[in-house]
From TrEMBL:
This is Propionyl-CoA carboxylase alpha chain, mitochondrial. One of its GO terms (cellular component) is mitochondrial matrix. It is found in: Mitochondrion matrix. It catalyses: propanoyl-CoA + hydrogencarbonate + ATP = (S)-methylmalonyl-CoA + ADP + phosphate + H(+); butanoyl-CoA + hydrogencarbonate + ATP = (2S)-ethylmalonyl-CoA + ADP + phosphate + H(+). GO terms for biological process: lipid catabolic process.
Amino acid sequence: MRAIFFSTTFRTRLILQQCLISKRLNSIYSPSYGPGNFYHLDHVDLNESKFDKILIANRGEIACRVIRTCQAMGIKTVAVHSDIDHNSLFVKMADEAICIGPAPTKLSYLNEDAILNAVKSSGAQAVHPGYGFLSENTKFAKKLSDHNVEFIGPSSESILAMGDKIESKRIAKKANISMIPGFDGEVNDVEHCVQISRDIGYPVMIKASAGGGGKGMRVAWNDEEARENFKLCKGEAASSFGDDRLLVEKFIDNPRHIEFQILGDKQGNVFYLNERECSIQRRNQKVIEEAPSVFLDDITRRKMGEEAVQLAKAVGYYSAGMCTVEFMVDSQKNFYFLEMNTRLQVEHPITEATIGIDLVHQMIRVAKGHSLRFKQEDIKFHGWAIECRVYAEDPYKAFGLPSIGRLTSYKDPSFIPNVRCDSGITEGSEISLYYDPLICKLTTFGKNRSEALTTMAQALDAYVIRGVTNNIPLLRDIITEERFVKGDITTKYLPTVYPQGFKGKMLNDQERLSLTAVAACVAVKSSIRDGSFKNMLRQTVRSLPKTYTYEILLNDKKVLCHVKASAENKQFEVQIDDNIPVFIDDNFKLSDHVIHAHVNNEIIALQLFKMESTGNVTLIYLGTKYELRVLPEAAAKYMSIMPEKKAIDYASVLISPMPGIVKSVNVQVGQSVSDGQEVCIVEAMKMQNKLTAGRAGKVKFVGIKEGDTVEDGKILIELE
């Protein structure tokens, strides 16, 4: 155990982020928004009893989130961490830090005995579990209770009742909650799963009983998929939650996913804090959430909220911010109970933004035995909030396969008004294959949805991430896509809008012209810089041309570009083929993290991602990374005689689409395989991914074995 001390600068930054907002007791305040002014802490009553020390049994951004509120309340914190997390932000923020084991979650963050030992040695009076890991683990909550340590969440009885998806459905049925047809018992084996699926009728959802976050959850449309997905879900459930029990229910095709936040205390008060729309998903994991939902009217909202409270009361539920009742809603606004999560949700910031209550603060107060100081009628929406989950993922691969690496450059957009960044990383942080690849929960607020979306676009354009691939291109495209802007969304949004997968932002003619013109100006500024003497009192330029001519290639389309640079007017005049000239102010540097280019008096935001001596210029524009080849006209004519790179036969070579750990290898050298046959399974960030043969043939090479760690792009198996 060791104490962590901050510099004055670091403490000041944390205080600015927290921005304690005072409010009169017994009332709900309207949120105030500004740079860093997004952490709403209810008024702290100094005469109210509190815990002296809280241990956070989690990592990353949620550990940082809990620590911030504890600091504002004057409560000391203890961080527990794996050995590879020793230098993480949450460890530095905590007052004490204890290593509980190696990187694999079973040996660290799911290691109940190690965490209990940390509780004892630190003298912590309470444990906040965050979300995931042990947050819905009945046995862990019971062990804490047996040691007179408060579990900041529901009682072990409530977790057993509602955290377990099988038991929760039985209770919901008894409480007359609107239900999805399904089997409310435990699935014994593969054939039992197939029989249940047939009885219910395909399609069905196979899901982990103790699950959440989209892990251990897959749709089956026939017997073959039921068998296959049973195996994959069982493995993911064991890896993520330490519990491999599964259930099966009817899959409602093309619904909305809307959830209600429940707030309660030990005195029997239970309220709903309205809804969150969570329909934008990939692989059953939420990507973008918002509050309120564009779909619900006041009557439906009240009905859903009252059913959520009715269900919570049916299990004797208490604890603030730790219960979310999730519903599927069809096009006629019929709603069906999906599941209850007895924990703090990932997307809780959008509720805090629109309701004005710090949920973590209330959780800690309630765990200490204090009552809530408001009534249901006090809960009102104030404005609109949208959250984008920024992941270290490649959005061009199945809408997001994990990426790992070190963040060589990192600048979040929290300086923009009405922007909140919940993150557990800093520049230099490592994204590991052992844990969830979340970089940041980016939340924006506005008086209405349009204002919140506009701010989100600005925030995503200003977000600088280098060192790992990220999903900002997909997020940026979604928030300006026509259907999303109209609010016409369902859980099938991604495959419907992008049936061939995400291919990047499709530029219109004007956007393409602006991007090309800026690329030409970047090339000119680079040429001027290269022709200058360094360490001179004034810039000296030798024989610089009046006009620069480039051939620019973008997406297989070539244009000829003439650029005139005016030092007097600090402006570039760019002529692209026969188009009207484009005027761009010379107001940026090549070293700027974000370039705010003035193009014909319109400001557009870009990032210069990379510039090579070969003429390759990579710019990030509207979220998407574009690779342009910018060559002087004299050099461009030689490109036609350059040899072409030999293309890889991807049908004969199986390449790992992401970094991960090999869970199984199902073929050997000399074995014949059919097209689409499973050859291996690679686990990345606790998600199991089945890899298949691209064609029929005989296995020539197998370069992996079970337990191997593989890189993105590694050749795994080759066919003759």
